Amino acid sequence: MKNRVVITGLGVVAPNGVGLTEFTKAIKSGTSGITFHQELKDKGFSCCIGGIPTISEEKKSEYLTPLQLRGFNSTSILYGVMAGIDAWKDAGFSVDENSDLDYDSGIIFGTGTSGIEKFREAIYKIDDQNVRRLGSTSVVQTMASGISAYLGGILGFGNQVTTNSSACTTGTEAILLGFERIKNGKAKRMLVGSSSDSSLYTWGGFDAMRVMTYKHNETPEKGSRPMSATASGFVPGSGGGALVLESLESALERNATIYAEVLGGNINSGGQRNGGTLTAPNATAVQKCITDAIKDANISADEIDVINGHLTATSKDALEIENWTKALQRKGTNFPYINSLKSMVGHCLSGAGAIESVASILQIKEQFVFPNINCEDVHPKILELISVDKIPQKVIKKNIDILAKASFGFGDVNACVIFKKYSEF
Amino acid sequence: MTKEEIIKKLTTIVKPYVQNEEGFKNLSEETDFINDLEINSANLVDIILDVEDEFNIEIDNHAMEKMLSVKATVAVIQEKIND
User: Fold this and answer.
1) What pLDDT sits at residue B82?
2) Residues of chain A positioned with their CB less than 8 A from the CB of B49
3) Residue A220 pLDDT exceeds 80
4) Where is the Ketosynthase family 3 (KS3) domain (chain A) (predicted)?
5) Which of A40, A132, A240, A375 could form a disulfide with A83 if both were Cys (CB 3.0 to 4.6 A apart)?
6) How many angstroms separate the Cα of B8 from the Cα of each of A30, A122, B29, B63, B70?
7) A425 has pLDDT over 80
8) What is the pTM for the complete model shown?
9) Counting beta carbons within 10 angstroms of the beta carbon of residue A262, is it exposed (0 to 12), middle (13 to 18) or buried (19 or more)?
């Protein structure tokens, strides 16, 4: 007997809204979190705009103790800890440093690189022959598992506490890994999610690859243009998202608020074959990832009401839409609604999958489709595939029963998860 | 610098790392950092770095190993200051 898995808590730290209330308001109104950053310009970046969550020192101290904040310099850990604690509290639990060890709850929290600014500090000290001055904080803030380690200690979890890393697929993969664990009875609850640093040093390599836009430095809010004919590369973003996944049985026992159900999903790789490379997806594998997710969720493609796409605002957006039309066997006016949170927050890299999943679940819970901004000029190749009505540019009310969320990452890796409005049967 | 002056500075340095407030209130020369103040052993290295900054001294690995109590730490500091 496999457990049904539901979502009982959410937390988010996004460039256009920190905390669920602010974030929900922002995505409904199509508020951009993209701004100009002088430091990018000063360092010679072509792309000088990006999405960085706004967090005051006071806010930080609500989540981390003065001791934890001594020598603290890791935004990925900060975002992850904030989103994780918020999600746990949102699920109806308290945070108590003297709580009993909880063997029923675990964490799978992913990231691309952790604490890259802290790493930079360490590298400078070492190159300066001053390794002894690193202190005790360098390792815990730069290990990839730093985020899950911080959260694990704050919450006192005794089930699996680990970290996954699969580039832009990371957050969506974390959800599916946690889902499997609960489904198979290995845990009652899993706090899952992902985050990404706000750092020049995370973004620099992408700038060098010329995959970020440099055409909107004067108009940052217009810069992130998924599905648009004038899309010219993605805008870097950062932040974190977290979800509490729980067995239905445990959620009902606690009388918890249920946001949605995770019906199933799939993770695969294109193996960097048949057109797939380290940086480009194998289209066949993408389609298979989607169709296998549908199979795993035991639904038919016709039942999908809304897609939250990967859609980064590069030249690959049309290919992604084509993959969806082939995988679902749906096009034109028969295609589901589709949107990309990246139009508002940019591409939050390893944090993207989790932040976008939080947005997806809010849409199911509150029954709306958030608007795509900056695609008043939908790419002609996309218009050949699907009706323009399916790409809402204003928020719409919509009865959403089933939503498909996918992420595709460097290394030719894919993940697709199927969320459903919760009903007893 | 007198022993009392050193202890006063040391008290300010260790304060943020203390987990046992009762032990901190009763801080004396006999206080042991780990047992009485429940300072996380990893944080001992941070305390040493703070001591180096405050007293403008450098503490080698050998001396560092001894610095587990107020008394031993004061002794190391005095020795380094007088070097």
Assistant:
1) 86
2) 133, 135
3) yes
4) 2-421
5) A240
6) 56, 31, 11, 21, 11
7) no
8) 0.96
9) buried
